[in-house]
Amino acid sequence: MTTPALSITDLRKSFGPAKIIQGVNLEIEKGERHAIIGPNGAGKSTLFNLISGGYHPTSGSIRLNGTEIGGTKPYLINRMGLSRSFQVSNIFANMSVRENVRCGVLYSMGYGYSFWRNVGNLKEVQRKTAEILEKVDLLDKANLPAALLPYADQRTLEIAITIAGGAEVILLDEPTAGMSHSETERAVALIKQATEGKTLVIVEHDMGVVFNMADRISVLVYGEIIATGAPSEIRGDPRVREAYLGDEADALENGDAA
Amino acid sequence: MLKVSDLHAFYGKSHVLRGVNMEIMPGEVIALLGRNGVGRSTTAKAIMGEVPPKGEITFKGKPISGMESHQIAHMGLGYVPESRDIFPTMTVRENLILGIKNMKVPGKYTVDQMLDMFPNLRARADNAAGVLSGGEKQMLTMCRTLMGDPELIIIDEPTEGLAPKIVHQIGDMIAEIAKTGVSILLVEQKLSIALRIANRVYVMGHGEIVWSGTPEDFREREDVRKEWLEV
Amino acid sequence: METIVFSLLNGVIYGLLLFMLSSGLTLIFSMMGVLNFAHASFYMLGAYFAYTISDASSFWLALVFAPILVGLVGAAVERWGLRTVHVNGHVAELLFTFGLAYLIDEVVKIIWGRNAVDYQIPELLDFPLFELFGAQYPAYRIFTLFVALAMLVALWFILNRTRAGLIIQAALSHPHMVGHLGHNVPRIFMTVFGVGCALAGLAGVIGGNYLVTDPAMAVQMGPIVFVVVVVGGLGSLMGAFLAAMLLGLLQTFAVAIDANFADMFGWLGLSPTSEVGRISIASLAPMIPFLMLVLILMVRPRGLLGDREL
Amino acid sequence: MSDQTMQDFKNLAPSNSQKFTQRLLPLVVFAVVVLMIPMFNPSSLVLTLLNVMGINIVFALSYNMLLGRGGLLSFGHAVYFGLGGYAAVHAMRMIEEASYGDGGFWASYPVFFLPVIGFACGALAGAVIGWPSCRRAGTPFAMISLGVAELIAAAGFMFGSIFGGEEGISGDRMNGPELFGLSLGPISEVYWFIAFWTIVGTFCIYAFTRTPLGKMSEATRDNPERVEFVGYDPQRVRYLVFIFAGGFAGLAGGMAAVQYEIFTPEAVSLAPSGMVLLMAYIGGIRYFAGPIVGAVVLTYMQSMMSDYSEAWLLYLGILFMVVVMFAPGGLAGIVAGLINGMRAEDRNERIGRWLTVSAGGLLAFAGLIVLIEVAVRWSNGYGEVFEPFGMHLPTASALTWALILIPIAAGVGLLRLAMKRKEEGHA
Amino acid sequence: SAESLKIAFIDPLSGPFGPSGQAGLNEWNYAAAQINAKGGVGGQEVEIIGLDNKVNPKESLVQLQKAIDQGVRFIAQGNGSSVASALIDAIEKHNKRNPGQEVLFINYAAVDPAFTNERCNFWHFRFDADADMKMEAVTDWVKGQDSIKKVYIIGQDYSFGKAVAAAAVKNLGEKRPDIEIVGNELHPLGKVKDFTPYIQKIISSGADAIITGNWGADMVLMIKAAIDSGYKGPILTYYGGSKGAATAMGAAAVGQVKAIVEHNTNLQLSDAQTAYVDGYEAAYPEDNYYYHRIHNAMNMLAMAADKAGSTEPKAIAFALEGMTYEGPTGTLTMREDNHQILQPLFMSTFSDNVTRGVEKLPLGWVSGDADRIEADATRTETTCKMERPS
Ligand SMILES: Nc1ncnc2c1ncn2[C@@H]1O[C@H](COP(=O)(O)OP(=O)(O)OP(=O)(O)O)[C@@H](O)[C@H]1O
Ligand SMILES: Nc1ncnc2c1ncn2[C@@H]1O[C@H](COP(=O)(O)OP(=O)(O)OP(=O)(O)O)[C@@H](O)[C@H]1O
Ligand SMILES: CC(C)C[C@H](N)C(=O)O
Ligand SMILES: [Mg+2]
Ligand SMILES: [Mg+2]
User: Fold this and answer.
1) Residue A56 domain boundaries
2) Residue D173 falls within a domain, yes or no?
3) Is E15 on the interface with C (CB under 8 A)?
4) Do D77 and D131 share a domain, yes or no?
5) Organism's domain of life (chain D) (predicted)?
6) What is the pLDDT of residue D375?
7) How far apart are CA B87 and CA B98, in angstroms?
8) pLDDT > 90: what percent of chain A?
């Protein structure tokens, strides 16, 4: 068996006395689409922060393709091929959409801190930027300032920046939060297409999205994973119902997501 | 209690509200439904003075359009915005204290009573509010507004981004608040909640109220639902 | 021995003066987040107002009215200036006060002239209080000490007994929301800014005749005030107090020490005739505050007693 | 990827002609203007002014690499200007010594290339000082820069052999090999030197904004957190930008060394750092040309207006505050706004509003001028009287007060009117 | 010709040394008015252009350039040897680069001895006694005071302060080897606002006398701190007459503070001279007649122009060399070898027994017959090797 894309063992994180992540174990295979669900405050975003380098783990280990990355700086992790999006849109508001995506592209194309090249002349960068913009369907808005985009498009741009660097492992934190039904559907299609063949970890409260996209689902409650499994297993798990889904489980069974 | 007639509002050049009319009686829970972007939040903002309103808005018989937001608040109008706007660097307790309008006049609740009602918050009482999870933040925002003893609360999308189970809790909480005699204007997308707790329903489309009636009537009107709510 | 006693005394008093000067800024900075570059200019205004008032009537009236006047000027500046730029963020506010400093400096030059004015210590306090090792100690310095302590107590009371601090801090993140909760944010901002400026004005009344009242006094004191506030720590009055004392003592002691680098580092082979060797400790005095500032920001960005980072 | 995409993308990217008109043309025009000036036989007074402008343009542009592009508010940028300048003066002295002494490297180093030394030294200083200062942006950065500036300024009086104490260090630019037939003696020859380096500096700083590092510096300004998650270390980005900004400030310092032939410790102090901040901000930090405009305007005020009015710093302070309050885009922003406005559909409405605003502003300003000038003369106490356009305006006269109060009141009224119209226009 | 002769006065007009510069400007203006009443210099009306340099050498050069660009050919400056040093350099360079448009430097107060020794320059003329000459006089006085056993030297940290300190150490060593120098300290120029720590240090050192070259605010504040702290020994100054010092000292300092000067208003004055002084004090009621040397310089300038028959700086410079002038205090000579004036000096003492007070006080400066030092006696050796233009 190949090394898992992401392997987390006994990960813990406390803020002062508050133990937020209390021993998470998780393995995510290459190419898998994995959803993490759980009640508000369970620690999902915190887990993402730990994986992507935003926080230092209190203890435990996180391996990306077999390499330990716990406590490594975010930009180093990013260069190793892991990229994330944010629950609250976190884009470069004063730049155009194109420039936003280009920021995501530059490092991966090897132009790091270069100060002797004109970005206008970097053909591959331009091509890659265009490719990403096309993928997320923002090509026609490429020259708009990001701050002026409608909310849903900002969320999309958030995803675009995340995938721009060509990372193999992608973490998306509630990518469809605040979107309407139709927008959500579009976003799901887009995410599916853009992460084709990559490892995807996604946090979502929209069960429609989760059950539609995920190969496997983990349920995080109070900093612990209480269940991991295929969507069908999770739906039936009484603990999950109790802790998270509540009445909605029935709705799901009726095929009528909220 | 609150009466809105021919309310218009603009963002720059775009005409978002095109003559909204509605009325809320004391003790009522009103749900304002509508698709994304039809202007429900804008209605709330216009009432609260955050967006300059054109038209007539009276609260308890007094016109409030053009008033400063703190004056509106002092008249007994509370607001829980979509963006929640908790004060991230302050503790949960401090956030609650800030909800008190006048330290000299004791309100219905003390901070401690409030924390007793919501054990989730009590557990985080001395943490910075910025690190709360989404659901905790939503609760905090509502509690904070309650601290000021409002007579009418406008609540904008309280369940957005919340786990399914919490959604229900929040619904219960709003019903609970309504029982204490506070009027509520609830801007909500999730029909299950809105219909469960509302006395009356307004449906909004393109910056106007297109339908109003009781939840029971609403359930009957498949056509309204199809035309104005579904995509 | 004499040196130590004198330096202690002078250091404490200079430190207290620094504290008086910076307490207003601590208030404004920690409550409103405004790094008021013009703070020392308000200090200067205090001195000049006091000069004019005591020229016309008495020092004691000046002691009361000069700070009030400065406070009113401050409130007006907030009302018709700062409030407009507030929406553009802290950098805009900082720049606004930066321009304000130029403005006040120039206006002072126009009204009171380009050279020092003769703002004198009131006769009642102009006598040697005691003699120490052959040198007389002026009573006014001891008076300064008491005013500063009174200010410390009063401020501590204000900060800990009012909710204004919380409200303002909240307004920094979500001003609209604070309004919806029923607080009149603009008025609180104006009051805090006014009070902060009035405190600077009071420092000016005291410092103007202790030191010199001239148009350069603002420029000279401005940066040091920042040092006190930042080193002390954001939001901490006690921190500011501590930092001011530390600065006062360090600077005074440095002046009093009769040694140079060669004396201190001679064992390292530093020659007393070399350029570095000849540097006297006394001449380091003006560098000390800034050395402290840079070090603190690098090592402990929240300052000595601050409760949050800058 | 489909050809179609590439096609679309090409259409999005500016065309070559757009690139030319928007990027190259302004620089070319700038260079042509600079080169044409001597054809008008300017007096040495004008040449001096132009030279100082050139120095300040490069200095202000280098400052804007930090403030406008990098979002780093520095109160100590003159440190790098000063250190670069000092290095150049020292080099100038070495050239002098070497050419009278035993030759060597310095004897063959042309004074014309002293700005290179300035750049190197400024960049070096940036590399050393930037290391601790660039760890954080925002207020801590501003405060550290202030502290460093004061430290270096204090050190200026301590290390006599470097800074020369109160006397400063001076040199003679007329030594070493001549380049381009310029002896650099008369000011008209120094003009060519300054012109050359102004163009080189401007061009290089512009080119920098188009590099990956330049772009990421803007990204870091807007959102340092996100930058980390696209593979960049924001501290590193800031640090590198800081070094370049220091280098170009040093370049300007090297130009100043040749122009003035003296540097004093005051050059590294807070005052010139504040001045360059004013230049960049008043000119407009969000526009590349902003600092250029600012440098030109402020240099003019500093050298010329100070002859007409003692209160010129007061006018400067007022100008700055007006910009901060009402025109955060600076002078360049106002110009850009005008140009965009001319293209907008509600053009006529806008022009009407502008006219009202300008009329109001001018009126209020006229009243203010009278007030200030009368006050200045009153304050000097020599009994001098402000006499604009043959009018006689003593402090006590009713006419004086009428000329102060009426225009101010009328101006403020007009401004309010314009403001109200704008609000209504938006509704 | 109708064109006026412009003298650019480059000195501090604001800041801690503003009063010193402003007083100088007033006296230059008065001297110009007086000479203009007598027909001007070489038939040209003299016009003084005051330029503020904030005692900053670089700013001074900016002002110099501006003055030159406006056609000014004469520069007057005095406050600060640091500035004078830069001006000497810059003027020399200018004169070399712009033959036919030379500029002449009239130094009325910057007394770093170097300017008339190793750094002497043809375009520079000094109308004040240099720091060494003055220190000779000061130490001659100390020589006679047996009670002085310990001396503290304090000064401003720049070339002039250093020159004073060096001269004091050298002269005391020669004239009174028994005296212990208990402190020799330099403080930053114009930055100290509270001299109390310095004074307490001096008192603790047990000094019997203080020697200081301080001027401007540094003088006023230092002396104020000394009096407030109850320092009782003699304070030997160069510039005790700095504006504001008398007020700061008050009656407490009578007999205690001394200053070495070329003139004070309680000397035996001729009627003409009395009228001249009165005229000045009437024209500038906030000032007292102080910079006598400015008036000397103006008169010598006029004489030189007459002698040369021209107002060209070069011609005037040649005419000034070796010129003698009968001034109110005696005969003045401009040394040809180094362009240093020789004039009688007076050790004067702060006193309450005066016919003319200063600063509207019944206090002022007096000197007895024994306090007069003849012009010739002030002559010092010079190392100057003057290069003269052809
Ligand atoms: N920096 C921090 N300091 C202290 N507590 C924190 C910090 N960050 C998060 N927490 C706490 O950790 C818990 C988990 O937060 P997290 O944001 O990970 O929740 P989540 O699962 O993403 O919830 P949601 O679905 O609402 O976004 C919350 O209770 C929060 O208060
Ligand atoms: N600040 C703004 N500037 C410009 N347009 C805005 C702004 N805020 C909202 N709008 C636009 O106004 C319209 C109504 O917005 P509003 O927020 O009231 O919608 P809503 O019905 O509450 O929908 P949502 O589900 O998105 O909250 C939308 O088309 C939106 O794009
Ligand atoms: C005006 C004088 C007091 C100047 C001083 N003598 C100097 O040489 O610097
Ligand atoms: Mg989350
Ligand atoms: Mg909404």
Assistant:
1) 1-70+202-258
2) yes
3) yes
4) yes
5) Bacteria
6) 82
7) 10
8) 22
Domains in chain D, number: 2
- Enter the tokens of residue C111: 């009204």
One digit per residue, the tens of pLDDT, for chain E of length 390 reads 458 999 999 999 877 788 889 899 999 999 999 999 999 999 999 999 999 888 889 999 999 998 998 889 999 999 999 999 999 999 999 999 888 899 999 999 999 999 999 999 999 999 999 999 999 999 999 998 999 999 999 999 999 999 999 999 999 999 999 999 998 988 888 888 888 888 988 988 889 999 999 998 899 999 988 988 889 899 999 999 888 889 888 888 899 999 999 999 998 889 999 999 999 999 998 889 999 999 999 999 999 999 999 999 999 999 999 999 999 999 999 999 999 999 999 999 999 999 999 988 999 999 988 899 999 999 999 999 999 988
Q: Out of C226, C287, C310, whose CB is closest to D146?
A: C226
Instruction: Give a yes or no: residue A168 inside a domain.
Output: no
Spell out the residues 6+ positions from residue E345 whose beta carbon is closer than 8 angstroms to its own.
Answer: E129, E133, E134, E137, E260, E261, E262, E372, E373, E378
Asked whether residue A243 is assigned to any structural domain, the reply reads yes
Q: Is D218 exposed, middle or buried (0-12, 13-18, 19+ CB in 10 A)?
A: buried
Selected residue of C5, C10, C255, C281 to mutate for chain E interface (largest E Cβ count, 10 A): C255
Count the alpha carbons within 13 Å of C134 in the hemisphere toward its beta carbon. Answer: 16
The verdict on D270 and D372 lying in the same domain is no
Q: Which domain holds residue D359?
A: 344-426
Which ligand has its closest atom nearest to the C-alpha of B205?
A: 2
- Whether residues D102 and D146 fall in one domain: yes
| Residue A194 within any structural domain of the chain | no
Contact between C95 and D281 under an 8 Å Cβ cutoff? The reply is: yes
Backbone angles phi, psi at D355, to 5 degrees: -60, -45
Sole residue written with tokens 């830069």: E86
Q: Using alpha carbons only, what angle is made at residue E323 by residues E321 and E327, rounded to the nearest 5 degrees?
A: 140
Q: Are residues D114 and D216 in the same domain?
A: yes
The reply to whether D240 and D380 lie within a common domain is no
Supply the residue whose CA is at minimum distance from atom 18 of ligand 2.
B39
CATH of the domain at A43: 3.40.50.300
User: Domain extents for chain C?
Assistant: 2-215
Task: Output the pTM of the full model.
Answer: 0.88
Looking at all shown ligands, the one closest to residue B43's CA atom is 2
Hey, is C137 helix, strand or coil? strand
Residue D5 lies in a domain: no
Contact C184 B70 (CB under 8 A): yes
The count of structural domains within chain A is 1
Chains in contact with E, where contact means 3 or more Cβ–Cβ distances below 8 Å, are C, D
What is the rounded (10 degree) CA torsion for D196, D199, D205, D209? -150
Does any ligand 2 atom lie closer than 6 A to the CB of residue B84? Answer: no
- Among D312, D336, D352, identify where a domain stops: D312
CA of residue A255 to ligand 5 center, whole Å: 26
**Which atom, in ligand 2's list, is nearest to the CA of B11?**
4
Identify the residue whose C-alpha is closest to ligand 2 atom 17. Answer: B41
pLDDT per residue over D288-339, tens digit each? 999 999 999 999 988 877 777 778 888 888 889 989 888 888 999 988 888 8
Tell me the ligand closest to B40's alpha carbon: 2
Q: A122 in a domain, yes or no?
A: no
- Shared domain check, D307 and D353: no
Chain C residues bordering chain B (beta-carbon distance below 8 Å): 163, 166-167, 169-170, 173-174, 176-185, 308
Q: What ipTM, to 2 d.p.? A: 0.86
Same domain, D300 and D348: no
| Structure token digits, residue C27 | 């208030």
CB contact under 8 A, A114 and D211: yes
